[in-house]
């Protein structure tokens, strides 16, 4: 599987970020044609209560690189990418191969 | 699911790291009792050929936080944690909840 991994740092307003992410951004992701699976990981504070280095990670799974490229070029893929700006954080985006 | 996410930066000797990771570290991880699933993602260079921010990500999945704590306290869990030093990189480790 080819995965698009998106790592978000801690937003200034966590509650607002989470609400928008869950209510708007995830539904846009799930609507992308060719998406095989999507996983969202919410990171917890460290054992000492410190904020984690990242707040949230999304993983979008595609059959292969060609499928990912095609999916992100659809209207739904473009809408998802454009909506990223509404989250107010520039995430770290990584393409990888997952086994 | 509770996940332990381990993010490794790019090692000085990628080939040596990958060989040790695949040959020794992954088998130690898979031997941990209570591990529900393990996924390894290898990140690819950016579209401009630049090195990705992280080289590799491991995700270890457990039923819940209690199961993760119990698993990492077993002999196999301790052996896995101890073997991390042989990889020559201090990774970013994050505990999270994955859906």
Rounded average pLDDT of chain A: 95
Sequence of strands across the biggest β-sheet of chain A: 2-3-1-4
CATH architecture of chain A: 2-Layer Sandwich
Silhouette of chain A: globular
Number of strands of chain A: 4
Distance between the termini of chain A: 7 Å
Over all CA atoms, what is the radius of gyration of chain A?
14 Å
CATH class of chain A: Alpha Beta
Oligomeric form: homodimer
Summarize the helix and strand pattern of chain A as letters: EHEEHHE
Assign a percent range to the helix content of chain A.
Answer: 25-40%
Structural class of the helix and strand makeup of chain A? Answer: alpha+beta
> What kind of sheet is the major sheet of chain A?
4 strands, antiparallel
CATH topology of chain A: Alpha-Beta Plaits
Largest protein-protein interface:
A-B, 20 and 20 residues
Features:
globular, alpha+beta, 4 strands, Alpha-Beta Plaits, 99 residues, homodimer
Describe it.
- The structure is a homodimer of 99-residue chains.
- Chain A is of the alpha+beta class and 99 residues long.
- Chain A has a single domain, classed as Alpha-Beta Plaits.
- Chain A contains 3 helices and 4 strands.
- Chain A has helices spanning 14-30, 65-72, 75-83; strands spanning 2-8, 37-43, 56-62, 92-98.
- Chain A has a 4-stranded antiparallel β-sheet with strand order 2-3-1-4.
- The N and C termini of chain A lie close together (7 Å).
- The model of chain A has no long low-confidence stretch (mean pLDDT 95).
- At the A-B interface, β2 and β4 of A face β2 and β4 of B.
